[in-house]
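Journal club side-thread
Mid-discussion, someone asked how the predicted structure for our own chain would compare to the paper's figures. Pasting it here so we can look after the session.
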Amino acid sequence: AVSYTIKRRDALRMAMMKVLEQNKLDVFVNPTLTTLAAKIGGPSEPTVGDRSRAGFGYGAALGIPEVFVPAGFVDVAYDPKLVLSADGTKYEPVAGTEPTKLANPLPYNIAFWAGPGEEGTLLKVASAYEAATHHRKAPTSTPALAGETVTY
């Protein structure tokens, strides 16, 4: 299993570097999650296919730098539910279809990642994104940064 993970990491890193170089890109950008985090103790979003190898992300798993920055807030959730399977032997998660207005908006992130050794470029891009979008909101327990307006 260890040799498989090492081979997979190296192959993915080489493919990523090839795409960056062929397209003259400095960084990739991607959402960190495509759904909100599940409620603690609640059902997760349903999955498709073999999830036994799920959880293999980018960043440290590929040996590349990755930065997460605030990308906004969401004030509506569609919570998944558990439904008894057709054969009646287990409960299975199904995607939520009913909107729930959240009392407090939840933040979500966006990830920027680049090739090995490109930390400086990555930090410049992530910093420029934060400066342009103003998605960061200081929590009530933390003072605002210089020049930042706190809104709640």
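Post-session note: The chain has two helices and five strands.
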